[in-house]
Amino acid sequence: MRNFLFSISIALILATDVRFSLFAQTYDKVEKGSEQPEWSPDPDRKTRFGQEEPTIVETKKAGPKITNFLVYGATIGSPGSMNLNLGYYYKDVVFRASGGHWRPHWWGGQVDLGYSFWKTPVITHSVSIVAGSYAVDPYAPQVGHGGQNRYPSALNVPGYNHWNPTFDDLIIRSYVSNLNPTLESFLEYKSRENQKVFLSQRYIGLTYDILLGNFFLQVGVGVGKGNFSNPQLLLQMGYFFDTR
């Protein structure tokens, strides 16, 4: 009995020693290998721990051009009251043409050559030298509107070609009345103030132009030869499409 208990004690001691040795070896392996972090060097000499997702660089969408684009649209104002427009912005130079033909005596046209001194994707400022001509045929206009002091009548006959007759016109009308009262009445009727008046003008001028998004504004002054007094106001505004 005594020898049996001694044998069991020796066996327990040996088993405990073997278990402790196995645990110590396992701990050494874990301590030396498994807890070391993964790393990989980057080309820019920075150490990156772990596996990272590749960086995706988004390409920015190109913004609208500030030059080298075509514009086309419609405006109201000079030269033709209602105008179709076509132009091109090339670097710092602006080419533009505008106008319309609505009746034989109601039309207008203008060409612009400009310099663009301030350009952004939103707004473009420019100054232009312009040249054009126009004709209108208002019905019974009032003297003084538009700067006129005298309107020509629709009848191109000496003595009857002014609404407000001059001294020479009155002498001619008196002479015609003495010769033929019927003819004088007919000529007076044809030259009366409730007829249409045919006015025309040729001009050159200087304008300041703004293209704000798709809104266009042009304002300036012009001088020329025709039925209108100088200087003249040049103004047109409208909506432009573009190829930016």
Please describe what this structure looks like.
The chain has helices at 2-34, 167-179, 181-190, and strands spanning 39-41, 47-49, 69-77, 81-90, 93-103, 106-119, 123-136, 199-212, 215-226, 232-242. The N and C termini lie far apart (108 Å). It has 3 helices and 10 strands. The longest helix has 33 residues, at 2-34. The model has no long low-confidence stretch (mean pLDDT 80). A hairpin with a 2-residue loop joins strand 8 (199-212) and strand 9 (215-226). The protein is an alpha+beta fold and 244 residues long. The strands form 2 sheets. The protein has an 8-stranded antiparallel beta barrel. Among the domains are: 69-137 and 198-242, Beta Barrel (Porin), CATH 2.40.160; 148-196, no CATH class.
In the CATH classification, which architecture of the domain at 69-137 and 198-242 applies? Beta Barrel
**In DSSP terms, counting alpha (H) and pi (I) runs of 4 or more, how many helices?**
3
Overall body shape: rod-shaped
CATH topology type of the domain at 69-137 and 198-242:
Porin
Q: Give the overall average pLDDT.
A: 80
Question: Major sheet: order of its strands?
Answer: 3-4-5-6-7-8-9-10
Helix amount: 10-25%
Number of E-type strands: 10
Over the alpha carbons, how many angstroms does the gyration radius reach?
47 Å
End-to-end Cα distance, whole Å, is: 108 Å
- SSE series: HEEEEEEEHHEEE
The major sheet is characterized as: 8 strands, antiparallel, barrel
Derived from helix and strand composition plus strand pairing, the structural class reads alpha+beta
Low-confidence parts lasting 5 or more residues at pLDDT below 50? none
CATH top level of the domain at 69-137 and 198-242 is Mainly Beta
Residue fraction in strands: 35-45%
